[in-house]
Amino acid sequence: MPIFSFLLFVFISSFTPGPNNFLAMTYANQHGLKRSINFCFGVAFGFFILTSLCSFFNIVLINITPIIEFPLKILG
């Protein structure tokens, strides 16, 4: 996957409604907008790291599949 497509996906999906955004909205409602800015940046950074790790391990799994395919056929 080209890096631009990946970053575009991460950027768009980090702003769509989901549990992270609802948690950030609740935090901002309870503590105010100024105090919640760091929390929102942390949520966005954490989502980016999580998505990057998933992408990395997916690439590793794709590369290792031909190596472990034969033992899995025997064991399966």
Largest sheet: none
Estimated share of beta-strand residues: under 5%
User: How many helices does DSSP assign?
Assistant: 3
Give Rg in angstroms.
Answer: 18 Å
Overall geometry comes to: elongated
The ordered H/E elements are HHH
Q: First CA to last CA: what distance?
A: 31 Å
**Derived structural class:** mainly alpha
Low-confidence stretches: none
| Helix content percent band | over 70%
**Count the strands?**
0
Task: Please state the average pLDDT score.
Answer: 86
Tally of structural domains: 1
Architecture overview:
The chain contains three helices and no strands. The protein is mainly α and 76 residues long. It has one domain. It is elongated and about 60 Å long. It is a multi-pass membrane protein. Its main location: membrane.
Tell me the layout of helices and strands:
Layout: H1 3-13, H2 19-31, H3 33-75
Helix pairs in contact: 2-3
Question: Which keywords apply here?
Answer:
single chain; mainly alpha; 3 helices; 0% strand
Offer a quick outline of the entry.
With 76 residues, this protein is mostly helical. The chain has three helices and no strands.
